[in-house]
Design goal:
Largest sheet of chain B: 11 strands, mixed
Number of helices of chain A: 8
Radius of gyration of chain A: 18 Å
Largest sheet of chain A: 6 strands, mixed
Number of domains of chain B: 2
Shape of chain A: globular
Order of helices and strands of chain A: EEEHEEHEEHHEHEHEEEHH
Oligomer: heterodimer
Shape of chain B: globular
Structural class of chain B: alpha/beta
Distance between the termini of chain A: 26 Å
Strand content of chain B: 35-45%
Amino acid sequence: MKEPLLEVRDLWVEVEGKEVLKGVSLIIPKGETHALFGRNGSGKTTLLMTIMGFPSYRVKHGKIFFKGEDITHLPPYERAQRGIGIMFQRPPTIRGVKLREMLSLCAKENGVKIEELAREFGFEPFLDRDVNRGFSGGELKKSELLQLLVQDPDLALIDEPESGVDVENLQVISRMIRRLLQKDTHRPRTKSGLIITHTGFILQYVPADLGYVMIEGQIYCRGNPLEIFEGIQKHGYEECVSCLRRIGGA
Amino acid sequence: MSEKDRRSLEPKLENFRPAKEGQAPRSLEELSPEEWAHLKEAGFDTQIPKEGEFFQADAHVVQCRSLPEGLELMPVTEALQRYDWIGDYWWKAVSAEKDVYTRATAEDLDEGYFIRVLPGYRLVYPVTACLYIRTPEVVQKVHNLVIVEEGAELNLITSCTTHPGVRSGFHIGVSEFYVKRNGKLTFTMIHEWAEELHVRPRTGIIVEEGGTYVSTYVTLHQVATVQSFPHCRLVGPGARATFGSVVVAPKGSLLDLGAQISLEAPGTRAEIISRSVSTGGETIARGHLIGKAPEIKAHLECQGLMLSDEGAIKAIPQLDAYYANVDMSHEAAVGKIAQEEIEYLMARGLSEEEATSLIVRGFLKVRIEGLPETLQKRIDQAVELARAGL
């Protein structure tokens, strides 16, 4: 088996006094992309936010290991410095801070060429605008992905990259994610990803190695992501529940 | 009596020595490297391109030179002797009887600058002026007069600061600005005073038809008290005024700031934008817009960030309308930094302190319409320099 990059072990998480995750376990090996399916409110975003370490997501039980280190109680910036990055679904506006400045803070002198990357993805005109200020849905996604590309994390947590994006932008966004997760290289990949997708469309452009279904704060199913997605499209999430009941897994 | 109560008291003139007793340098070359460092931080830099330069230490004009044709720059006492028409302007935008400080200045003047831009001259580079308190415990009473004639344009940057060794003093600055038809005056004032300094600017502005006045005020360092409430009259159709202020109130500072704009002709426009941050001090952001003519448009925006449970931010907006056909509005918001923004930046690898500092700097980088890009950059630089203290 490949070296695990991220290991989530029996994670129970509370948000504002409400138990959201109820014993989640998963392992993402180095170089793999995993997809997380589930209804709105099933706990997908909570899992990502907890892996990133935001304080309002309180770990009641369980552990998170990254590169073999227990990071369960590290603040977000220390996790970022260790190589975890997140794409926010609804990022805030940072008034008075130019995207260019934000990107150079993300880069931390890692040598990534900010201008070149921005130009490649048609985002150069936004470099001198305030971070996320007045950005459309597609622009927000591109801004987020550009920040991640500059940050160059080993594990990218990607929350609903296709939501609110038109077809044309979806292609650019997919190219950005492919770059982030080294989908176009033939060498052994070193970058890993965990992608939340509600619709599953992004998987047509960004292949995943393993898929999970999350229902009510628990992971119910692991398997081939395309097969899982087809199943969900045909039968809905209820089928996952009854399927697991039939095989006695839940 | 608490420290806050003590500071809020009006400073007494008799507690300070006359500025005329100060030992002024004969030239700028006599200033020490430490003084220069301080002056540069307050925005006074002899190296940048400029049209003219004025430097007053205590009650003495040390440097006064102007380069281009069309610009008159001189100590105000010289202008009072030279021009018999000056009475049309002197104490006409600010009343000498306004308060104890204007009366004291009228009775015993410690200089000030006179600047006049002749009709049609649009100066490219700024004129820089510095009012400097070099001697401890003095009261400096200056009176400035600026006239921008028809179709002329002036960028004036005033840096007000103290010798690094001066902790205590009192600055009274009366300023009267006249912007004639289709003229434009961009006035930027950067204050960098000392912990026990009291400051009382008294400013009046009159803008004629089609004229524009853009004022920007920056204070980012500790000062005992500042109380300033310029009164701007837009007397000709289409005249405009914008007041922007970027204010940080550290512990120990009481800053009572604002502006009053009186829109007295049809088609006039006014805007007041203030950004205040309290790191333990108190700031009052006042704004008073008076619509005395139809078809005017005026807007007031006060935003405050409280970074501490000490200190205070008070936003006091006021709108007065006297005609049906006016468009006047205000918005005020005071709060803390959004946790969501801090967390967002932390996810990008910034510590909580770095994230807070970045957000505060961004908050203070207000964009003031009509302010030349070079001046905007200098204000942004001043905010950057103050970063360590935020």
